[in-house]
Each structure stands twice: as structure tokens, then as C-alpha cells.
Records
---
Amino acid sequence: MKITLDKSEGEAGNAAAAKTDFSAAVRLRTFSSLRYRDYRFLWISILFMSGGQWMQQVALSWLIYQMTDSAFMLGAINGVGAIPFLIFGPWGGVAADRLDRKKLMLITQAYLLVFTLALGLLIVTEMLQVWHLFAFTFFTGVGWSFTMPVRQALIPSLVPREDLVNAVGLQSTAFTSTRILGPTAAGILIASVGPGLTFLLTSLAYLAILALVAQIRVPAAARDSTLTSPIQDLTEGFRYIGRNRLILHLILLALIPMTFAMPIQTLLPVFARDILEMGPKGYGLLVSFAGAGALIGTLAVASLGGYQRKGLLLMSSALAMGVALVLFSRSDWLPTSLLFITFVGGFQMLYMSLNNTLLHANITDDVRGRVMSIYMLDFGLSPIGSLFAGTIANFYGAPLAVTILGSFCVLFGLIAILRVPGVRRLP
């Protein structure tokens, strides 16, 4: 199967006409991809998508901790949310390479809307039980395992190749920028109107996504899915990665933040309530400051342009991420905690965005959906870190758990620098 990329509307006609009044306002290389109309619609939809996701995550974590008073249950529910990526993630990539990507995005967003609305109604009618939260987490995880690969695979169809790295970086920026306002808004809403209305408002974000995606004009792609079966497509995706050691190493390196940095999200309610002695608003602040750092990290990636030592920067950010985790774990004063969680978010997203852009720059378009879905299997493996962190926190406290995670992050970062020179030398 070969995907034929058409030029965006800006390149199809006069090149000067592509640089509309909108693009004139964002002449910085950082935002160059936003001059393409259809990519703008996708990018704005990601703002709504990630904003709703962050509000949902904050509300869900706060609910489960309030209902069970267990750090282990925090890790468990995040682990359940990651399981669908292991089961359905690769098939999401196959679907992205075989089916109409726009229609697939519309279907998955409608699916997420239904489940989010249903959970909100369960909460406001006071019918919610703990098992509902686990069921919701699993079934929405199924939706995300199909949404994320197709969203990634759409990007090369909407921008020319010379703007691909920038477009991928801006996608990460859209996702992380909402970590600033989304969790803060969720904390305020939980405290003022309750988690039920928070979920109902989140469902409105999915309605907005449906309206935005419907406006995207995706160029026709030459996919002849009759020549191969879905199983053959999936097998070819794994073979492609097996033949390309650089791609394999980038996918394995993506496990570092998934295993050792992401689990801190599950323990933030513990730090907010028990270490810093704050309520949901404090939890929202911690997540938002992590989001502020993440935004800086992704903007830095989008601005790299012709920087020729991206591989070394990737490795260095892993070390810095681990140090920031250890410093955060040792703080019990809000100002320093906010400072260190900002560094954690910044270096984590610098690492993840660099890893993602390097991967996109080194794969072919005909297997992009499958490779990205296999790459996203790392999300399914994150329960290893979440369950480990939750268990340690339950018996020995959250600070020690995060200290251990940060130390492992530094250790594996050093191993990567010494043992994976191919990635380290990437321009």
C-alpha cells in the first residue's frame, strides 16, 4: 500500500497565496505549519481533544482517590487505561493505513463523546460506583488507541514534507498547552460544581472536535486494501521496524518517560492532598505547572529547525528529567514543588516530542499509521511504572516512589547515551 500525498491548498495554487493573513501573523519558524488551512483545523481540534482529556484525567484521578483513599488504586486505574493500547493499538494503526482517516477520526470522537456523557450522568444522578470508573477508563482507552494513530498519520497529508517536523512539534504543543488551563479549570470545576458537571462539560469538547474534523479536506490516498489482509498489514508493520534498527531504538527509547516519568501523574493527588496539604485546586496547580513546562519543551522542539544535534539533545533531556523528578520528590513547599514539576514537564515533553519528530522524519508514509501505533504500545506498557509507583507509594510514601523513578530515569538515560550511538548522532 502506498499513500499518495497531495499538496495543501497553499501549494496547489500560487505559493504567495498560501501565506495568508493568518500566516503573516506567525512568521516565526515555530508556527510555520499553521499557514495550511486543513492542518489548522486539525491543530485546533487537538486543542479541544487534549483539553478535554486533561480535564477528564484530573477529575477521574480525584474521584478514584476520594472514593478509595488508596494510592495503589490511582496506579491501578491508570494501568487499566493503558491496557487497550496493548490490545487494540496495533489494529488502530492498521485501520489508519487502510481506511478513510477523516471518517475514522469522526467515529472515534463520537465514541468518546458517548462514554464521557454517560459517566457524567452517572455522577450527577449519584449512581456512580468504583467499577464504573474502571470500565469507563478501559473503554475510552479503546477509543484513544484508535484515535491517536490516525491523528498522527493524518499530518503528512496536510503539510508538505519540509514542514513535517514542525507540524509534529506543533501537534505536541497543542496537546501540552492545554495542560496549563485544562487541569486548573478541572480543579476549579470539581471544587465548585463537582466532578459530574466537569465530565458533562468535557463532552462538549468532543462535540467541538467533531465539528472541526468535519471541515478538514484530506487528499485522496491511493490505498488498495484488497491486496493484503489486515493481519498481513500488521505483520509488515512489525517487520518494517525489525529491519530498521534506528526506528526500533527510537521506539524503545520512548519507554523511558512512559515508565519513569508518566507515573508521577498518578501520584500528584497524593502530593497535593497529603504532602502539600492542598485540595483539588492545588492538584490542578501541580498539573498546570507541569503543563507550562511541557509547553516550553514542545515549543523548543518546533523551533529547532536545522539544529543538527537533536539526538544528543534527546539523550540529555532524559538525564535532566530524572534529576527534576528527584528534586520534586524531596520538596514539601509549594513554590519549590511548582518549580521542580515545571522542569519535570519541560524535559519530559522535550524528550517525547524530539523522539516523536525523529521517528516521523525517518519512516515512510505507507506504514506511518502502523509504526505510530506500535510506537504507542509504550502507552500500554506504562502500567509497569504506574503500578510500581503506586505500590511503593502505598507502603513507603509517594516521595520515595518518585525518587526511585527519577533515579531509574537517570540510569537508563546514561545507558542510552553510551549504548545507542546511532540515535545520539542523529542531526
---
Amino acid sequence: MILRHSSLEGLLSTLSTGARVYVPAKADGVTKFVLYSSSVRPDFSITNTTMPPKDLLFPQTQHMYRYGTDAEGVPYVEPVHDADDVIVFGMRPCDVRSIECMDDVFLTKGFVDVSYQAKRERLLMVAMACTAPAPTCFCNSMGLCPTAAPLADILLRPAGATDASGDTAYLVEAQSEKGQAALAQWESYKATDTSDADFEPVSAAVSCSLKVSMVGVKDKLEAMFDHPIWEQLSKKCITCGTCTFVCPTCHCFDISQENRLSEGTRFRCWDSCMFTAYTEMAGGHNPRASKSARVRQRFMHKLCFFEQRYGKTLCVGCGRCVEKCPVALDITCLIDQIGAADVAY
């Protein structure tokens, strides 16, 4: 199926009548996935939005359940679930991979997070292949391909040819049963004056300019828990938490409640392993009180612990932390340092 760029606005308007549609755009000075409306102008030229789409499944603040007593004094507990269908249109392959990592955390190993599951089941992911990765992107090195997103329900690949008007086009491919069913709504917007054979999709050979080698990194890290590298690295860190909030796979959270008379709400909100209070216990003990311990935890989790448990790294190579860290504490430089470290494994 061929979809012309000029048809996107009409398609998004149609899709938004039956679901909440989120598109990459700039809002309040920040690029993120914004709820589509006639006043929103999607920008599909954004390689990676500053804020990833993870908050659509794992909101910054999420009500989990309400509790209290009714008029007759009988206690009750009511789960809070979002029942809306959601379409994320224009996700990049690294963000699609990040959802796969979040699925591992919230839906596998014998545990199902019902709040996450309710949202995940109603999510349609429409991915867009990358033709020009940003200078801070390194997804190739993390085992991804900029032009492929196997977990996406629908994949759009920019085509190399245009018509006489200069209108660009996308080759559209359904990659799941959910995606195949969704394409029925797209029929009236597909280009009828051309065929797939008339267009050449973007090459699968698109590559990131920033590269690292992950060979042996996990195995080396298993022997580097007490290595001096963590103390050296932490001197630079200001523990602001920026890296964790722009990361598409960080999922630390805190749980609290708000009470009003006989009613209350339990909710969770994003937290960060970089904050001192995150691991502080009720009795005052903190197993990661030092900054070096918290820095070590972040990178060990991304590059070692998660792979031990789920078989993949928790870093997807999107480069957001590389771009936004105020002190340039670069994970790619750390990977290079680990690779060069003289550690037996």
C-alpha cells in the first residue's frame, strides 16, 4: 500500500474519531508525542522526540485505584483503568524496541501489571523507518536496525521516489493482525494512481554514525561491580535524573496516596534510581547512599542486569541521554571504557 504524505492529515483526522492519536510534535518548547487535533501540526522529520512515548503506557502520574467507604459505611476498592484506544503514529524503531523492554518488565516472569496491561492491549503502534539517524543515535550497535521495527503493528517506510508534484510517499506494511485490521480504515487514503512497484523504499543499510561495540560488555560488567570506574564516573554526575526521565526504558516509580475524609486514591509516579531517596528505607538505611553506587546501578541495569534477566540490553541506542545530559556523561563513552578495561571474564 502506498500512502502519500499529503494524505496524512486526512488520515489522522479520521483515525482520531475512534481513538486517541498521538503524533510527534513540539509543545511547550519540548518535542514529544502530542494528542492529535486540528490545531496540532505533526513533525515527522523529528528523528527522536525529547520525551519518549513511554508515558502513554506508563504515565508520569497514574491513578491505580480508589478506596473508601460508601454511604452505608461499607468499604470499597475500585481499580482505575484507562479504556481508550490509543494510536501512536510515527514511532521510531528504537522507541518500538523500548516498548518490548517495558513489556518484559510489566507483563512477564510470572507477574502482570494490570494498569500497564490495560493500556498495552489497546495500543496500536505505527512506526516510521529512519532515513537519517541523528548524530547521537547508536541503535545499530544495540542490535537494532533504523529501518525495521518488528514489534510495530504497522510500518511506514519513506519511498525514494516522488510524483510530479513533489509529494513524498510511504510504503505501508501491516506487521500484526491488529495492524492488518487497522489498515481497513486507511483504504480511502491510499494512492490509487501508482503501485508498490513504482516506489523504492529506503534501504535497510541505513546506519548510525555513532558506533560502539557491545562484544563482551555484559560479561565484563559481571566482574566490575567493585571496579574504580564507578567512582571516577560519578565525580562528573550531578544526579539530576535527566537521563532517567528522557530514557524510553527507565521504569522506576514510587507509590503514594491522597486521602480526603473517607475516600482516597492510590497512585504511582515516575522516580529515579539517581535520587538518594529512591532506595532509602523506612528505618533510614540506604543500600545505595553514595553517588557512585547509584551511577553503577543505572549503567549495570542498562547493560548487564537486564540482559541477564530478559536476554536483551535495556539501552535501545536512541541517544536521548547522550544529547540531554548537562555534564555529558555519555553512555557510549562508558561502553568504550568497559571494552578497553583489562578485566578477566
---
Amino acid sequence: MGPVNRPLDLEWLEDFLALSESGNFSRAAQARNIAQPAFSRHIRSLEEWAGVELIDRSQHPASVTPAGEVMLASARDVVLRLSQARTRASEVHEQAARSLRFAATHVLSLAFFPGWLQRMEQQTSSQLGPIHMVSDSFRACEELMLHRRVQFLLCYGHPAVPTRLAAPDFEFASVGSDRLLPVSAPDPSGAALHPIRDVDGPPTAMLAYSEESWLGQMMQVRMRHVADPMRFKPVVTSHHTGLLKNLALSGRGLAWLPEILVSAELADGRLVAADPIEEAAGDRDGNAAWRMPLEIYVFRATSGQTPMAEALWAQIQAR
């Protein structure tokens, strides 16, 4: 008898364990709820796979050979581990079906998502989750959505700035609004240390968004005048909004920052508006040329969602 190059069937191991306990082919087959001829074939197939006899059939009751004893110890371990793995896999699958996977841009993951999540839970009078959150740049979050590694993407958006998350594979809903405001640290008098000046004055030191920044790309489309070198001189460029905020607080320059991120600093005077007051029709604050409205979007794939994710999307759309 020699080893056979064939797959190993888990049932053969389970039958082998049953036979080793009973020592009787008929009783073992009955315990395994299988016909005895088929049971005997399973044992023979296992022996062919192992390349040695595992059962001494000359004795009554049948006993395990020395080679069979070696196989027996491993068989018990394999069957136990696979049983545990099956149970764990089922638990993980059930948990995954109940979980929600979000990606969010840095600013919104910190300044918007916690409050929005609380409001969503208050509407249902129950907690959503378990929730897995990834906070990263827009492009990184977009990649996660494109590869279906998350179910929802929370980000800033503007109708004039397209993304790769397009119909019919993806859809979105607006869940809030914000604005990009030009802000600066104050000077001793409380005015902006780095104000937006007239074109005749020296250019204002600007903390600029880099080309890969999603907010920077929206500004390029909607606020082209911000790139005027006669008015603004970039002194630091970064895609990280939090870094630009900290630099603005330290007085390094003017930055366009989301209002949701700087509302506390504007309220206590650590940052002030850097744009001149210009009355504009239809603008509630004036300064329409220097302040950019933003929508807060939630994107999702239109197919392959779990019941929990579908329920949350229905709730989002109902608002």
C-alpha cells in the first residue's frame, strides 16, 4: 500500500475517530449515520491516503495499529481545530453582517462624524454597529470605496467637482453643509494678522492646500482667484487640513479652513476672519467671493450591501 495523491476528506477522519472509539465497524457506522459499506470505504480511503494500515482488522474488537495511533492524535487535533474554526468563522460572518464600515476624510471623522452618528442613533433609539472607521485623505478613502473595503464614505463634495464614485455603481446623499472660510491668527488689535489685501498691497502669506488635497481641488475649480500670485504667496503647502489649522493658529499665514473645524477658535478669538466685509446679494455674511460653500456627502455602492447597511441608507435618505 502506498500513498495516493488524492484530496483528504474530513469525513474520513471523523469516521476514523468514531471507529477508534467503538472498535466495531457496524456500531461506528450507525453512530456516524452512514451505511456500513460506505463507512468501510471511507476507512480504506484514509488508509490509502496515509499509505499504511491504520486499523488492525484481525482483532475483535478492531484496534488501531501503531501507525494508526500516530494518525489518531493528529486526526483529533485537526477535527477539533476545524470545528472551532468553523464556529469562529460563522460568528465573524454574523458580526460582519451587523457591522458598518465607514471611511471619512480627516476633518469630518473628527468634527462631524461623532455628532452625526449620535443623531442617527437617536432617530432609531438604538446603537448602530459595531462600527469600523477609517480616517484618511479623500483619495485613500475613495480607493477603499472603489475596492468595496468600506460600505460608506463621508466626505466633502461639490456638484462641480466630480469623483470616481459615479452612477450607476455608486450613489450619494447630502447629510450636511459647511463652508471654507479664510482665517488668520489675530494681531494685537484683534484684526487679522494676515488679511486679504487689495491687489495693490503686498501678497498675503497663505497656507495652501497641495494638489492632491480634495479641498484644494475644489478650491481650484470654484475659487480660481485664490491662485492670484499678486494677492497670495504660499508659504506652506500641505494636504493635511489639521496641519494648516495649527500653522494658522501660530500666525504663519492665512488658511482656508472648514468652518466646522475652526468654529471654537473663531468663537474665542484665537482665529479671526481674514476677508474684508463685502456686501453681496444673496450672501448672508457678505464675503461671497472669499467663502466657499461645501456639501457633506455620504457615498455608498448601489449593490452588495448587507441588511444593516441597507437599513442605514434608508434612514439617511429619509432625513
---
Amino acid sequence: MKKIKVAPFLPTEVEVNEVSETRAEVIAYPFEDGYAVTLAHPLRRLVLGSSIGYAPISLKIEGAAHEFDSVRGMHEDVAVFIINLKSIRFKIKDDIDRVTVSYSFQGPREVIAADLNNDQIEVINGSVVLATLNEDAELNFTVETAKGIGYVPSENLRDDVDSEAIALDAFFTPVRKANYKIENVLVEDNPNYEKIIFDIETDGQITPVEAFTNALETMSKQLSVFNGVLDIDLDSAPTRKASSGNELKAYLVSVDALGLSARSFNSLDRAGIKYLGELVLMSANELKNIKNLGKKSLDEIQECLTEHGFGKDSELDENVRVNLVKKLEQLKA
């Protein structure tokens, strides 16, 4: 006979099995029947889709005007050079979003990925061959590397890189594999409890455990939108609303949903500004002092604020201000 429960069983065990530097298993148990797959599937998707990596986003080669050109003395065409470059996995050493590095090589020699290591950039897979130079060849090029998630096609980057550079498709995702399996585990006399075994492999830009913890943080932040439900007044009208949630909804629009130009968005992103409400709370002087924010971008942001009903003449209710500050602190914690 089954026991009567008032709450689902809470799993208590978690293990990390580091198979190698780039592969690990994360194991958690015991879950009640059905709970394991409910958690495992979205976590797998977040490991694959929200892990931060690095990729070259633009290339400028001296003597080459476009990707179908060639360089005197270099065995590879520019198109092949680009393919080789995109197969190299970079890592920015400092905590910055972008870095631009120039290189110069004289032939005869074989240029490999490890030759691109310097104080700003670390190459993970150093044995990749980038180019083969004849004895009279001189190869000068500049690579811009950025931090990001997912995949961004070159056409989306053309307005955001040097006009003289070749924009590159950017494959940021550092996760090569993310799978899970579910096994039954015995709890007391019940064999129907479940164990999740995640198998995660990365390219070395980040560790598998870092990829998994990033996914957990992303899931937590995504679910925080429902925190307003905790403020529901159960004694209110038949249509019950989370008052603070609705009151603040207009302020919690993500910056990347505002339709700003890439230059304006990147300036805000580097400053750690993620929500419209953060801009609303800032004074005119604070907006002007955002690092790398030019006049054109400032005008665009102010116009965007006006379009959303937060122009220069708008006033923010003090209670709304207090609740907004509190909510933003929760979201960015």
C-alpha cells in the first residue's frame, strides 16, 4: 500500500565524475518517477544553448580585399584560411567581451594555432594548421575575437565590425556534447525512483562543470519571472494578479529586445545593463557617463526611452522606484 504524501520527495545526492579536463558526468538522485526527465531535458538544452564561449568575428588580411581573394606566397586561399581560423578555439584571458590582435609572419614556415597565443588570447587547440607560407611570403592579419553564446551568422555582424574587415560566422558554443540518461534507483523498498546522469563534453574554453553551473544559473534567472506570483493577494478580486509583477512589467523589458543598434546594445551590455528599468532609473548624466557610449548611441537610447513612455518629462513614482530597484537586484543577483 502506498504511503500518503503531502510533498514530492526531494533528491539528496549529487556527484561529479571528472572523466577528463573536457568531459564530466554530473549525477543526481533520487527523484520521484517523472521528475528526472522534467528537469533533465531543459537543463540539457540550456547547457547547449546558454554556455558562454569565444569565437573570431572578423578578419582583416593585408593584401586581401575579400574572402575569395588570395595572398601572395600563401598556399591557402583566403577562404581556406578562414575555415582554418574558425576551427581554432580561442579564449580571452582578461574579463572583457572583445579583443583585437594583429599578427605578422614571415615565410618559409607553417603557421599553426599555437602561434596566435599572446598576452590577450589563449588558444585551446594549438596544433591546428592555419597557413603554409613560401620563402618569399609575408602574412599580416588582424583578428577580432568576442565572447558570446550560440551561433551568430556573419550578416548579423557586418554592422558591428570594422568596415574594412571580413565578418565571420561566429560559433561561440563551447559544448561539444550534452546528453543525459535516466536510471532507476532503489529507495527503501521502492525501485521506481530515478537517477539523472548528465554526460557533458566541452572544447576546453570552459570546463563541463562550468557549462552545467551556467545552465543552472540561467534556469534560475529565467524562472525568477514567476517570483511575482508570491505577491498575489489571495483576498483580492476574482482575477488575481501579482501586483508588483504587473506594475513593473514595462520596466523589465530586456535591453536586447529594444531593437537598439549593435553598437548601442554592446555599450550597455559591457556596462552590465540588462533591463529597460535600469536605464529609466539613471539620470541624464549617468547615461552620458556610460563607457564607450557615443552621442549617436545616447540619442538612440533616449529616443527608445521616449517610445516606451519614459521620456525626459516622465516621473517615476517613489513606490515603483523602490520596488523596481528591489526587483532588479533580485534578477541580477
